[in-house]
């Protein structure tokens, strides 16, 4: 499974806005520059994010883009599914009734567990958490004079408990 460039850019836009002080607006051109997103493509993504209720955009001198909801209430899963539709590893993991083999397939429980883990992880990770981590990375980089590719926080990845399928 690979998410589209559109979804990746949408995640970057929401993260960029989540890192701003609450209620602050950003110019689309500034987001495009900071996130290395082609401006024309960014405009389409912002339109989609507005339609999905994640951002608000306004024109004019005091215009710009801002989050429509607090970053604590927006999850990675919500944004991905708004851009891509339902996330699924394969058809039978989301719709087992459509697979004639699901009742006797030895791989089906593994797909179901992986699907549940992915949904749990993405659905419990908010942009406030990701923004906090991003700020920690930036601070560490500036302290150590590192670029983005060489910094590491030496933190454990997020863990999620998902019950095993037997």
Topology (elements, then pairings):
Layout: H1 5-18, H2 28-35, H3 39-51, E1 55-58, E2 64-67, H4 76-84, H5 91-94, H6 108-124, H7 127-144
Antiparallel strand pairs: 1-2
List keywords for this structure.
single chain; 166 residues; mainly alpha; 2 strands; 50% helix; disordered C terminus
Question: Could you please describe the fold and organization of this structure?
Answer:
The protein is mainly α and 166 residues long. It has seven helices and two strands; from the N terminus they run αααββαααα. 19% of the residues are buried.
Written as H for each helix and E for each strand, in order along the chain, the element string is HHHEEHHHH
Q: How big a fraction of the residues is strand?
A: under 5%
The radius of gyration computed from the alpha-carbon positions, rounded to a whole number of angstroms, is: 19 Å
Low-confidence runs of at least 5 consecutive residues: 149-166
The multimeric state of the shown protein is single chain
Structural class: mainly alpha
**Looking across the biggest beta sheet, what order are the strands in?**
1-2
> What is the molecular shape?
globular
Summed up, the helix count is 7
Count of distinct strands: 2
Could you give a quick summary of the protein structure above?
This protein is mainly α and 166 residues long. 50% of the residues lie in helices and 5% in strands.
